[in-house]
Design a protein that fits this description.
The protein has about 120 residues and is of the alpha+beta class. The protein folds into 2 domains: about 50 residues, no CATH class; about 55 residues. The chain is built from 4 helices and 3 strands, in the order E-E-E-H-H-H-H. A 3-stranded antiparallel beta sheet has the order 1-2-3, with no helix packed on it. The longest helix is centred in the C-terminal third of the chain and has 26 residues.
Length: about 120
Amino acid sequence: MRPESELTPGPWKYDPDKCAIVSTTVYFVEPDDDANDEGILQSIVDLTGAFGGTRADLNCMVAAPDILAALKRLALAAAARENTQGDPMRLLEVQAELREAATAARAIIAETEGAKDHEN
């Protein structure tokens, strides 16, 4: 069993047969090629109510909206950086926004992974 502070390796996918989000690389029951058994992928979230992941998995899922917002902000700032139309003042503004967006992203990462420092 993985420690609660360890994120289950991705990628993850939705398995409609299980009504669950599962890891595509971690098995609850390992496959057995000799028996032609595909194994059972580790469920991260059983969407019927059970949770089979770690605390780090939960932190990552809970942070998903913030992560998406940070990625959008970084993408917008990066795109703006490429289109300053030669205006040095605009370049400074865009660089400042990119720095702020990166700082926000680092804060989300620290918050999402922060459980590592506070467990056990």
